[in-house]
Amino acid sequence: MPTDDEIMEQLIGIIVDGFNRSLAVLRSARAVDTSVMDEHYSGIGSQYYDLVTEQIQLTAEAGVEAIRDLFRQGGDNRDRTGDA
After folding, report:
1. pLDDT 10s digits, 13-62
2. Burial per residue of 6-24, b for 16 or more beta-carbon CB atoms within 10 angstroms, e otherwise
3. How far apart are CA 32 and CA 12, in angstroms?
4. Longest pairwise C-alpha distance within the chain
5. CB contact at 8 A, 7 and 70
6. What is the pLDDT of residues 6-26, one digit of tens each?
7. Going by C-beta distance under 8 Å and a sequence separation of 6 or more, which residues neighbour residue 1?
């Protein structure tokens, strides 16, 4: 069974990917103007990067218990299509 840290690491990767993809498509669609953010989102330690990282971390921490519950259910959790 994975540790909480391993679960959180996976969740962070998934959330980061979703954030980056969403922001990129919104930027491409000209739905958001990120010019101000781009000035302060240049990597670890930069103003907006740290804000985003903090929220991703909090979201992943909140999701650990839900994922942990899935592992606890183990073999009792069958495919939702009805297949075993």
Report:
1. 999 999 999 999 999 999 999 888 877 777 777 778 888 899 999 999 99
2. ebbeebbeebeeeeeeeee
3. 24
4. 52
5. no
6. 999 999 999 999 999 999 999
7. 71
Query: Which residue, chain included where needed, has tokens 């990129």?
Result: 24
C-beta separation of 64 from 11 below 8 A: yes
What would the DSSP string read from start to end of the chain?
A: ---HHHHHHHHHHHHHHHHHHHHHHHHHTTSS--HHHHHH-SSTTSHHHHHHHHHHHHHHHHHHHHHHHHHHHGGG---TTS--
Global pTM value: 0.77
What is the C-alpha to C-alpha distance for residues 47 and 41, in angstroms, rounded to an integer?
Answer: 6
